[in-house]
Structures are given as structure tokens and as C-alpha cells.
Specification:
The protein is an alpha/beta fold. Helices cover 51% and strands 13% of the residues. A 5-stranded parallel beta sheet has the order 2-1-3-4-5, sandwiched between helices. α6 links the parallel β3 and β4. The longest helix is centred in the first third of the chain and has 21 residues. The chain is globular. The N and C termini lie far apart (45 Å).
């Protein structure tokens, strides 16, 4: 099929940047112009999410790389961007654990400790309330032990003017790879 053919010729980083991102933007634009129904957009998103989940399972983690707990903040429902970042991380050899959506921040803290996570990666979509992005990150930073890093990405972080202390803001998928390569263990 289309995704398999495109993926065969690309690294995961290239695939999410040059195939999935433009595809989903064009689907969103078509929906905005009333050329497709919302269910078409949801079907496409669900298919791409399943495809990425199957690809993630094909990568073998390296023991010398960090454990990254991937989650959506409470109230966020758009999983695709997080899966795209997770796929890029998995291809690089990181251990990724995706616990999905609607996890209260205190429970996310407990999960990160239980999973021995080095990083908690959060994704904020364009639909996440702009007024909640910074308070959510600041509150979570106060909850989480200092040795666990927080990475935040997605279209919703564009509202951040000044990086919250102790949070790495990631603006694109290249920066995911850079952040992974920069991580240091204590």
C-alpha cells in the first residue's frame, strides 16, 4: 500500500516529515474546505496511527539509550504527533513506552517512576487549550523528580514564549533526534 511503499525508501525521520506530515496536513485542509467528511479524516488518522504502532514494534531498543515514557497531557486527545515522535525515537534505539491519553499528571509521575523513565515526552496538539500548555508543563515539572527530563512538542507548544524551567521544548522531529543524542545520565 501507499504507506508501506513510501516507508520502504525512507528512514522513519524522513517518513514522518516528508510523507505523514504533508499527508495529514492535506487531509486536514480538505476537511476544512468541506471536501471530505470528518469520518474520512478520522479513518485516515486511525490507519496512520495503526501503521506507526506496527512500525514501532519492529525496532529493537538499545540498552545504552534512555527510557522515554510517551503520553498526552490530560485533556489532549490527538495521538498522532506523539506516535510520530515515538517512531523516530524507536528507530534511533530508544526504549519507548507509550501510555496514551487521559492520565492525570500525578499518575503520570507515578508511571514514570515505576517505568524507570529517564524522560517523559508530552505532545500538545493545535487543539489543546493554549492557556493550559504552560501551567500544565510547570505543574508537571514540580511534580516530577528532578532527574526525569520533560520533553514537550507538538503544534500546541507554539504558544510558549519563554521555556519553562526544566522542560525541553521540541519544535520538530529533527530536534527529537538531537535531544536523544544530547541526553546525559547522572
Amino acid at each position: 500500500d501507499f504507506l508501506t511503499e513510501k516507508r520502504r525508501a525512507q528512514t522513519m525521520l524522513d517518513f514522518v516529515q516528508n510523507t505523514i506530515t504533508p499527508l495529514m496536513i492535506s487531509i486536514g485542509d480538505a476537511w476544512t474546505r468541506d471536501e471530505i467528511d470528518i469520518y474520512h479524516e478520522h479513518l485516515c488518522t486511525a490507519y496512520v496511527e495503526r501503521y506507526l504502532q506496527s512500525e514501532i514494534l519492529n525496532f529493537l531498543p538499545r540498552k545504552d539509550l534512555p527510557v522515554i515514557l510517551c503520553s498526552l497531557p490530560p485533556g489532549e486527545h490527538h495521538l498522532l504527533g506523539l506516535l510520530m515522535a515515538e517512531a523516530v525515537l524507536a528507530e534511533q534505539g530508544a526504549v519507548t513506552i507509550n501510555i496514551g491519553r487521559d492520565i492525570p499528571l500525578n499518575n503520570l509521575k507515578l508511571a514514570s517512576i515505576s517505568c524507570k523513565a529517564d524522560v517523559v515526552a508530552l505532545s500538545f496538539s493545535f487543539a489543546y487549550p493554549a492557556r493550559d500548555v504552560l501551567p500544565t508543563l510547570s505543574h508537571f515539572r514540580r511534580l516530577l523528580p528532578a532527574h526525569i527530563q520533560i520533553w514537550a512538542g507538538g503544534a500546541g507548544i507554539s504558544v510558549i514564549r519563554k521555556n519553562p524551567k526544566g522542560v525541553k521544548i521540541i519544535y520538530d522531529f529533527n530536534e527529537v533526534v538531537i535531544a536523544l543524542n544530547d541526553i546525559t545520565f547522572h
